[in-house]
């Protein structure tokens, strides 16, 4: 399988502190790739650098063979790369449905003007979007809360809305930053099932997660990041048995 995304020698620093120190890794199309590493290793920063939130100081991000280093997030979304955040972002007063619609609007050719003018074409497009939002909610088993404000949702449901938001962009690759963190075990299981289903539908997934049982169950390969560098890559058992990985975790985490 080909690399859908490759990161080469990526570096990024804040105020003189080097956080990413030459990261190299690839995400093969069709995989659920796990990205693990001790707290502070730079995993979220790496997602931010890939998804255009932070501009790297050096190195390259290639998406489907194109150099997309430093492209703004909305341009990457149009190329099929979407990320989610650890803490669901959003507008507290909007309903789940309105959230999904809003993110569906940020699509190629979907100017705000087109959405506001009530031409037959704009109305048709709005109807299509509404259907897509309802289907997305159904797919994530959120239909029963679709008209509720996001503030009224449980932590786990908010995580599902965050995934739904990403799905509205018809992604080819989703970067998920701890989508199960802080969620009760049965909902974490449900989210895991959704990820497997999305992957079955052809979406490539890269997942940051601290729960090793979930990583073992869902991810192959697993990439380990420590102190801003990729340490090793392999299947879960290979990675877990690696002395360097054990040392990285022992040194800083357990
Ligand atoms: N905007 C920022 N400004 C300054 N330092 C930052 C910023 N974002 C992250 N850092 C620093 O970069 C380092 C890596 O943080 P990051 O959140 O990427 O780690 P992580 O591997 O995702 O950790 P965790 O598993 O705990 O979420 C940390 O030392 C953090 O304090």
UniProtKB/TrEMBL annotation:
Domain of life, per lineage: Bacteria
GO MF annotation: an example: ATP binding
InterPro entries membership: AAA+_ATPase, ABC_AA/LPS_Transport, ABC_transporter-like_ATP-bd, ABC_transporter-like_CS, BCA_ABC_TP_C, P-loop_NTPase
Domain annotation ABC transporter: ranges: 5-252
Assigned GO CC terms: plasma membrane
SMART domains per record: AAA
Family statement: Belongs to the ABC transporter superfamily.
Keyword Protein transport in record: no
Gene3D superfamilies: P-loop containing nucleotide triphosphate hydrolases (3.40.50.300)
Record keywords, A-Z: ATP-binding, Nucleotide-binding, Transport
Pfam families found in the cross-reference section: ABC_tran, BCA_ABC_TP_C
Protein's recorded name: Hydrophobic amino acid ABC transporter ATP-binding protein
């Amino acid at each position: 399988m080909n690399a859908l995304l490759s990161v080469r020698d990526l570096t990024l620093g804040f105020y003189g502190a080097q956080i990413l120190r030459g990261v190299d890794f690839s995400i093969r199309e069709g995989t659920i790739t796990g990205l693990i590493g001790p707290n502070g290793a730079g995993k979220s920063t790496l997602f931010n650098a890939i998804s255009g939130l932070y501009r790297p100081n050096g190195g390259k991000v290639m998406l489907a063979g194109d150099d997309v280093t430093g492209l703004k997030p909305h341009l990457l979304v149009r190329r099929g790369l979407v990320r989610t955040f650890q803490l669901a972002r959003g507008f507290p007063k909007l309903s789940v449905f309105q959230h999904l619609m809003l993110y569906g609007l940020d699509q190629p050719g979907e100017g705000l003007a087109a959405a506001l003018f009530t031409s037959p074409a704009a109305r048709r497009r709005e109807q299509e979007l509404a259907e897509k939002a309802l289907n997305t909610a159904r797919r994530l088993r959120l239909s029963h809360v679709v008209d509720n404000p996001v503030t009224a949702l449980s932590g786990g449901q908010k995580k599902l809305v965050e995934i739904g938001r990403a799905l509205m962009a018809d992604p080819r690759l989703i970067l998920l930053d701890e989508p199960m963190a802080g969620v009760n075990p049965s909902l974490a299981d449900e989210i895991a099932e959704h990820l497997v289903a999305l992957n079955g539908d052809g979406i490539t997934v890269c997942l940051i997660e601290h729960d090793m049982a979930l990583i073992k169950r869902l991810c192959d390969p697993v990439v380990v990041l420590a102190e801003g560098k990729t340490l090793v890559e392999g299947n879960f058992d290979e990675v877990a048995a690696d002395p360097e990985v054990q040392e990285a975790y022992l040194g800083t985490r357990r």
